[in-house]
Design goal:
Strand content: 35-45%
Oligomer: single chain
Distance between the termini: 25 Å
Structural class: mainly beta
Strand order of the largest sheet: 1-24-23-22-21
Number of helices: 4
Number of strands: 31
Length: 464
C-alpha cells in the first residue's frame, strides 16, 4: 500500500513532497455514531419527516430572479476578508456575506483570465449549498432553500421552484441544448426539470420519480410493499427517506438514486420506470456513482464500499454484488472514480481518502492524508482528484506517471465546510494556449466549483 501525505497550508497553493510507501493498513480511529455525525453536518435531518402526499405539490413554473438592472448594481463581496469561527453547524449563525442574490467577484482575487486560483465567488442569500452540477457554461446549485439556482457564465440565470426544501443531489443528463436536470430531495422524491439555455423562464419541472402512475400501480399490489419503519410499509418504488445521492449512466440511459433508507433504486430514463430496488447497505447511503467498466459503486455510513455489476434480463435489469472493497468503523462520505486510470476513491469521516486500482477486481492501492476533518466530497478530472472537507479546504491531488499521488495545492477561502464539488474543462484557457495568447506551459486547465455551508460557491482555476 502506498500512502501519500499533504500538509495543510494557509495559502491557496502548496507543494508537498512525496511520502515513502508504507505497508501497514491505515489505523482505525474511534468510531463516530452516524446520528451524531448527522447532527454535526446537517440541520433537521433526524426529525421524523411528516407524511408526504403521493402527488407532487411542487410548482411547475419557473422562478427566474429579477435581473441586476432592476435592483441596481451588485455590491462587491468581502467574502475573502470575512472570518467566521468554524463550527460544524453554521446555520445557527448569520452569513458573513452581504445580502444580495447576485454574483460578486472577490476584491482580493479579481477576475483574471490567466489567474491560477480563486477567480470568483457566487452568492445567493438562500441557504447552505449542498449540491452542484456543471454543464458547459451553466452551473446548477442546490441548497436548503426552496430554489435550485442556475448560473450562466458566472451570472445569475434564474432558478427552479420546489417546495421540497433541502436539495441533496443534482445530476445533468444530455447536452446543453437538450438537458434534463435530476434533483434528489429530503422528502424522498426525485424531480426532473427541463433546462433552457437561452431563457430563464424556460426552466420548469416536467416530472417526478416515481411517477404518480407507477406509484399508484405499485401501491395497489401488496407484494410490492417493503418494511420501512416499525409498523409502516411503503411501495418499494419510492424512497421513504432522503435521497442523498444520484449517479447517471448516460450510455445505458439509467439513473441510480441512493437514500438514507439504505436502498439504491434503478430508474430507466426513457419511461421513468423504477427497474429495481437494491437493499444495498446496513445504514444510510451517502454516495453512489457509475465508475470503472460501467460498474456501480456505493458508499455508506455503515463504513463499507461496495461494487455492483449490472446484468440485463430482457427489458429489465438486475444488479449483483461483486466486491466489498472496504469495511471500517468510520462512515464513508463520498466516492469518485477515474475511469481512464481505473482508480476508485473513497472519502470518509476521519478525513482520509482511500483508493483502489486495477482491471476487473480492484485491489487496495493506498490512502491520501490531507485533511484534518471529514472528507465530504470528491471530484475527478483527468488524472487529478479534488477532495473537499469539513476543515474548509480543498486538496488538489495529481496521479503521476509513476503511479504515486502528489498533493499539488490546498485551496482555502471558505469559512464553512466544503460540501460539494464540480469540475469542468477550462475552455477559455485552452483556447488561448492554442492561439498563442497565453504564457501557460500547455498543461491541463480546470474550472472547479466548490459549494459550502457558508452559503457561497467559489470558482477556482487550477492548472496541472
Amino acid at each position: 500500500m502506498r500512502e501519500n501525505m499533504c500538509k495543510a497550508a494557509a495559502t491557496t497553493t502548496t507543494t508537498t513532497s512525496i511520502v515513502p510507501m508504507e505497508t501497514a493498513a491505515p489505523p482505525l480511529r474511534p468510531s463516530v455514531k452516524f446520528a451524531q455525525l448527522l447532527r454535526l453536518s446537517e440541520p433537521n435531518v433526524l426529525t421524523p419527516t411528516a407524511a408526504q402526499s403521493d402527488t407532487d405539490d411542487d410548482e411547475g413554473s419557473a422562478s427566474p430572479n429579477s435581473n441586476p438592472s432592476a435592483t441596481g448594481s451588485p455590491r462587491i463581496s468581502n467574502a475573502e476578508s470575512s472570518s467566521m469561527p468554524f463550527v460544524m453547524s453554521p446555520w445557527t449563525h448569520s452569513s458573513p456575506y452581504v445580502k444580495s442574490p447576485w454574483i460578486k467577484l472577490s476584491p482580493q482575487q479579481p477576475y483574471n483570465q490567466d489567474l491560477n486560483g480563486l477567480i470568483a465567488t457566487l452568492l445567493r442569500e438562500e441557504g447552505h449549498v449542498y449540491s452542484l452540477a456543471a454543464s458547459s457554461d451553466m452551473l446548477f446549485t442546490g441548497s436548503d432553500a426552496r430554489n435550485i439556482g442556475v448560473w450562466k457564465d458566472l451570472k445569475d440565470f434564474g432558478g427552479f421552484k420546489s417546495n421540497a426544501g433541502l436539495v441533496k443531489a443534482i445530476v445533468v443528463s444530455g447536452d446543453s441544448n437538450a438537458s434534463k436536470i435530476f434533483t434528489g430531495h429530503q422528502d424522498g422524491k426525485i424531480r426532473v426539470w427541463k433546462v433552457s439555455v437561452d431563457n430563464p423562464a424556460g426552466h420548469k419541472r416536467i416530472g417526478t420519480l416515481p411517477t404518480f402512475k407507477d406509484y399508484l400501480k405499485s401501491s395497489m399490489n401488496p407484494k410490492s410493499y417493503v418494511q420501512a419503519r416499525r409498523h409502516r410499509k411503503v411501495p418499494k418504488v419510492k424512497h421513504f427517506d432522503a435521497v442523498s445521492c444520484l449517479g447517471l449512466n448516460q450510455e445505458a440511459g439509467i439513473l441510480y438514486s441512493g437514500s438514507w433508507d439504505k436502498t439504491i433504486k434503478v430508474w430507466r430514463l426513457s419511461d421513468s420506470k423504477c427497474l429495481e430496488s437494491i437493499d444495498a447497505h446496513d445504514d444510510a447511503i451517502n454516495s453512489v456513482i457509475v465508475g470503472i467498466d460501467g460498474m456501480v459503486f456505493s458508499g455508506s455510513a455503515d463504513g463499507t464500499v461496495k461494487a455492483w455489476r449490472r446484468e440485463l434480463q430482457g427489458r429489465s435489469t438486475k444488479h449483483f454484488l461483486v466486491q466489498t472493497l472496504l469495511a471500517q468503523q468510520n462512515a464513508v462520505t463520498a466516492l469518485a472514480a477515474n475511469a481512464e486510470s481505473g482508480i476508485l476513491y473513497s472519502g470518509s469521516s476521519e478525513g482520509l481518502v482511500n483508493f483502489w486500482e486495477g482491471d476487473g477486481m480492484l485491489s487496495y492501492g493506498g490512502v491520501l492524508r490531507g485533511h484534518k476533518l471529514a472528507v465530504l466530497c470528491l471530484a475527478t478530472a483527468g488524472t487529478v482528484l479534488f477532495s473537499g472537507s469539513a476543515d474548509k479546504s480543498i486538496c488538489v491531488w495529481k496521479l503521476e506517471s509513476y503511479g504515486v499521488h502528489v498533493c499539488l495545492a490546498v485551496l482555502t477561502g471558505h469559512s464553512g465546510p466544503v460540501k460539494c464539488l464540480a469540475v469542468d474543462v477550462d475552455n477559455q484557457t485552452e483556447d488561448r494556449y492554442r492561439e498563442g495568447r497565453s504564457n501557460d506551459d500547455g498543461g491541463n486547465s480546470w474550472i472547479v466549483y466548490s459549494g459550502s455551508l457558508d452559503k457561497s460557491v467559489k470558482v477556482w482555476r487550477v492548472r496541472t
